[in-house]
Specification:
With 259 residues, the chain is an alpha+beta fold. Helix content is 23%, strand content 27%. It binds one DNA strand of 18 nucleotides through α1.
Length: 259
DNA sequence: ATGACTGATGGAATCAGA
């Protein structure tokens, strides 16, 4: 079973590239972030024609997440990150697919830091810690995947010294990510590629992709129950080099699990 | 420190992204 995550940076602008990628790689589950579309503008028909059943949480202009399952309806578990009813940003969805609990997240960017946006990021992270622990305690096989907006370590940035003051790389952000790993979640890409330079984001500006000036900020974290089933993980790097690409690269895990 | 790119909104210029 293959589970992928892809920050599409606008489902409207990216529908062609998304359908091509789905057709080529046939993930069993695809988690999408940054739909940048209101609920009613999600291209449900086109995605169903491609063989995928979607659930989604939209929002005008910004954010927005979706979970697509190939040939089966995702069973929605949670809509929106629990813990703050006043939070109106569409950044979190959970669904069960083939007996695996899939959490799709788009963690706040947090810049500029310090400031209210960084405070929101850290508060969001705390709520996420709480929810992640509940899921782990349930004993179910779980994948937490999406755009974490965290550069975990120095090897995950092309020039780490340029990011030390940035919300993606500040000590608070890294510590919050590390806390997940300490709790027992497995960073699937790093686990399967301990020393490799792997990036999942390239800025549109100054030919970042051509210079391989990237960041690794999209992550798939496996619960201890699921970790032994990890067979492979990687990125669909070439997708970033096509016409009208997202600035993020699709990222995936392959699990020894019946699809 | 700034700018360059891109998408959405709204129908120009601005915000947000990372």
């Amino acid at each position: 079973m293959r589970v992928a995550t892809f920050n599409v940076n606008g489902i409207g602008a990216r529908i062609g590239a998304l359908l091509q990628w789905l057709e080529e790689t046939q993930p069993d589950v695809a988690c999408l972030q940054e739909l940048k579309a209101p609920q009613e503008k999600f291209p449900e028909a086109a995605i169903r024609e491609a063989g995928y059943c979607p659930i989604w949480l939209g929002q005008k202009s910004w954010n927005g997440v979706a979970i697509l399952a190939r040939g089966v309806e995702p069973q929605e578990v949670t809509r929106g990150l629990p813990g703050d009813p006043s939070d109106e940003q569409s950044r979190y969805l959970e669904a069960a697919v083939n007996g695996i609990l899939i959490a799709c997240l788009y963690l706040p960017n947090g810049n500029p830091a310090p400031g209210p946006k960084f405070d929101y990021k850290l508060a969001w992270f705390e709520r996420f810690h709480k929810r992640a622990q509940e899921l782990m305690d349930s004993g179910a096989p779980v994948i937490l995947c999406g755009d974490y907006n965290v550069i975990p370590t120095e090897r995950d940035a092309y020039k780490p010294e340029r990011w030390v003051e940035d919300a993606l790389f500040r000590p608070e952000s890294r510590a919050a990510y590390q806390k997940l790993l300490d709790a027992g979640w497995l960073d699937a890409l790093r686990a399967t590629h301990p020393d490799e330079v792997i990036y999942t984001f390239y800025d549109y500006m100054r030919d970042a992709y051509g210079r391989n000036a990237g960041l690794r900020i999209d992550h798939l974290l496996l619960s201890p129950e699921l970790a032994p089933q990890l067979k492979a993980a990687g990125t669909d790097h070439a997708v970033r080099g096509r016409e009208k690409p997202s600035d993020h690269v699709p990222t995936w895990v392959e699990l020894d699990w019946p699809a």
